[in-house]
Structures are given as structure tokens and as C-alpha cells.
Amino acid sequence: MTFHIITLFPKSFDSYLGESILKRAIEDKKIKVKFYNPREYAVAKHSLLRGGSSKFSKAIRIDRPPFGGGPGMVIQAEPVIKAVEAALRRIRNSELRIKGNLNSKLTIPNSKIIFLSPSGKQFTNKYAETVSKKYTDIIILSGRYEGIDSRVKKIFKMDEISIGPFILTGGELPAMILIDVISRQRRGILGNFDSLEERRVSSSEVYTRPESFKYKGKSYKVPKVLLSGHHKNIESWKKKGRKD
After folding, report:
1. Alpha carbons 4 and 184: distance in angstroms, whole number
2. Which residues are annotated as part of the binding site for S-adenosyl-L-methionine?
């Protein structure tokens, strides 16, 4: 599975993707993460007009005031469109190498485009599982400021997804959440596939050694049922979420 992230700030992903389970999954080539900075595609057009220089400049602006007024800036549609097209071309070229023949349209049946938006459909484990099973390539549009020009959504078929009823300063954190939740639905990512909480009886309360310890004179013990070895009673305790 390959995640194609459209973002102005690709370096913000370095820390999270460079640790623990996702780092191992990337090293083991179970997942790949590719980045497409819309600024680079604006620069390509800009440079062509200025004589063909391809040197990337952060001074190139792709955010503009919104039509109709209002605070903040909106990311222009054209650089984002070009970034999505670049991702689709990469996916299509990969498919050609594997399968040998595809139609000429820049659409690939095994790819899904996701537009991150506070007003989108709520992201869930069920959605993540469906995407993980159906698609090998996932393009995620990660916006900033007041968002991305809405005409992008009219050009490409995509799902508009929200990670929750709150507003963030950008789509990078939601994109990381999608990578994490969707990746763990793939066999081999977690090591033991039974680690998926949604596939087993789980509780919000978990305990490990020691069985008992004291803090400021008070004893804190593991619930007796978890030490009993009685699997039916343990599962019942987990389902009820009891604290005794």
C-alpha cells in the first residue's frame, strides 16, 4: 500500500513516520509514503515562463485571499490539481509496470482520493478497513490556512473526510492519523493481526506487572478476575468495563 500525501509541509511527517510500528512497516516495504508539495508544481509553471529554471523557491505563493471576503488565505486550485495528477501518474506508471496495459485515462481503479475537511464524513475504523481492503494507493489532500479551493473537489472523484468535530491549523495531523489507522488494518503491520482492538474483546482498562504496588501509603492492585485464569469471566469483565 502506498500513501500519496499532498502537503505544503512534508517534513512535519518525519518524526511520526520515523518511529515505532510505521517506521518498521516502511523499512519492511509493507507501506510507502510519497509526498507532493503543491508549491513545487507552481514553481514548475512559473519557471517555464522565466526561462526553464527548475530551482525550487519557497517564495512562490500559492495562497490567495478568498473571493467574497473573509479572514485567512485559500490554497489555489491549480498547483494542487497538478500535484494530484503527479500522484496519479506515478500510480499509473507503477500499474503499467505490474500489469502491462491500462486505458489512457488518468484514473486508476485501485486508488482512492481523500480530501481532508472539518465538514467531511466522520472517519471511522470501518471506513479505514474498507479502504485498506479495496485500494492499494491512497491520495490524501492535506490543506492549510482556510483550506483548498473547492474546485479541486469538482475535478476529481474523492471522499471528503473529517477526523472529528474540531478545527486544526492544517491537515498534516489528520493525514498522519489516516496513515496510522488504515495501515494497521493491513496484515503484517502489527505483527500479530489479533492486536486489532476491534477484532477482539477489549477494555479501556489494562494492567501488567506488578500485581500490587503502593503509592503514598495506598495499595493499588490488579482486579482479581484478571488473575483468575477463567477466560469466560475475564471476557465478561472486559465487555462490561467493570473496575472491580
Report:
1. 17
2. 143
Q: Indicate if 129 and 226 belong to the same structural domain.
A: no
Query: 28 in helix, strand or coil?
Result: coil
Query: What are the helix (H) ranges across 1-137?
Result: 14-17, 20-27, 38-49, 77-99, 125-134
Query: Cα dist. 187→110, 137, 147 in Å?
Result: 18, 16, 34
Q: How many structural domains does the chain have?
A: 2
Domain that holds residue 236: 201-240
- Residues comprising the binding site? 143
The whole-model pTM stands at 0.82
Identify any residues that bridge with 115 across adjacent strands, giving them in sequence order: 141, 160
Q: What is the pLDDT of residues 189-242, one digit of tens each?
A: 886 655 565 555 567 788 999 999 999 999 999 999 999 999 999 888 888 865
Task: List the one residue out of 189, 147, 185 whose CA is nearest residue 169.
Answer: 147
Instruction: For residues 101 and 209, state if they share a domain.
Output: no
**96 and 208 share a domain?**
no
Provide the Cα torsion 99, 153, 167, 66; round to 10°.
Answer: 140
